[in-house]
Amino acid sequence: MANITQLTTALFEFLSSPDKDWSLCTFPFMASFLLFFAIYIGLNCYRQTWTKVYVIAFSLFFAFKANGTLMWLLPIITISSWYLTRFMMRLKRGKIRKIGLAIVILTELLPLLYYKYTNFTLEIFHELLRTNFSPEKMLLPVGISFFTFQAISYTVDIYNKRYPKTAELIDYTFYLTFFPLLIAGPITRAEVLLPQVQTQKNNVNESLVYKGLWLIICGLIKKALIADYIAQYNNIVFDAPASQSGFGNLMGVLGFSVQIYFDFSGYSDLAIGVAALMGYELKDNFRFPYQSLNLTEFWHRWHIALSTWFRDYLYIPLGGNRKGELRTYLNSFLAMIVAGLWHGASWMFIVWGVLHGIGLVIHKFCRNNGLDKIPDNKYTKGISWFITFGYVSLAWIFFRAADMTTATTLIDNILHTISLADAYTFLMEYPLWLAVVMISLELHSIRETDYNWLKSKFIHSSWLVKLCIFAVIMQLVINLSHHSIQPFIYTQF
Length: 493
Prior knowledge:
- The protein is mostly helical.
- It folds into 2 domains: about 70-200, no CATH class; about 205-490, no CATH class.
- The protein is built from 20 helices and no strands.
- The radius of gyration is 24 Å and the shape is globular.
């Protein structure tokens, strides 16, 4: 009897308490998902309405575990966005409907603007007035940027008739609260997910399930085995760059470049993989970005969901490349500044956006003024890759550093105190860390065709092979991961 009471108490505490570490690769989520998925498979054979309600209920529970009471923002934004978009489309076409569109977008943006940018705005205001005011730190709801951008894309696509009609409330609620996408996306358009939600009938097919399992395995390797391990030294460098040698600082920058890719692409793999297990096919969010030979190509490969969102809903509405060369440069630059602000209300993110904006403008200018005349051979490709990767890594310093002093100290140490003696010392002190970083970079150089071949081999292998691979990876995650799995970098955005 005592055991039953303890079990009941533990279950009640789990269901009623938020968890700051809650994410797709934590063991409490995995256990919850196994139970959820078993019931989902059974429900999916019957009425689809009940399946949708069940998924929505689990998604709201997922949001509660991640955000606590702030999870109520999600259903409030969902209902208001759906209703206002439908009301907007009933307005007379022309100026009145355009005003309605602006009001709906502003309404969808207000919670994001309030929770993410109020303190930053107040700090700027009081710095200008030279007061000692220090606003209280405001808790940012996890994933608010991602579901806000999904809501805006739905509204704009309905207005432009890119998506043909407004969805029913239950379908739209499923779309905006779908739990794999809640914490860190990827930002998914209505035209991708909603038709699957509206028409799905027992669509959990074998090939899609095995693809999902492959992505989950890749996500666990990237996040729990690689990103979390190399983050330990990266944190030391960025917390106190002056305590490390110039070479150690350089390795910290290289390590963070690797970490942020494996952390975020690992989460994307997990999210897309979990959705695939449930029968929903989402688009890839990364395509080997560190193989890019220029910054424009990098943004076609990195965080594709966000880069295409800014392209379609900011860059093109500003005029894109249709209004002359100078305007094209300005639009690219502005889009990257907004992208920096989207990542966080901090001058450091603005600097990161400015650096990428400048880099994009320089590449577009060179491309328009004879860059294509340079011979396309392995030497120029090697130089192009080195410049691109080096510039992206430089920008990551400002993305990761807590303040400008930390960033400038780190860069100054790299430029003025680096030595071969320090390199040898570092190798002796951190051999495993360096090996993981180098192997991770080498893995990133795999050709996309080879990766797809490997994925196909896994999908078509026997169930015993799949089970063994999955069991080995899970055991490695349990044995080799850090004491507690570190939060995903992109949950703060």
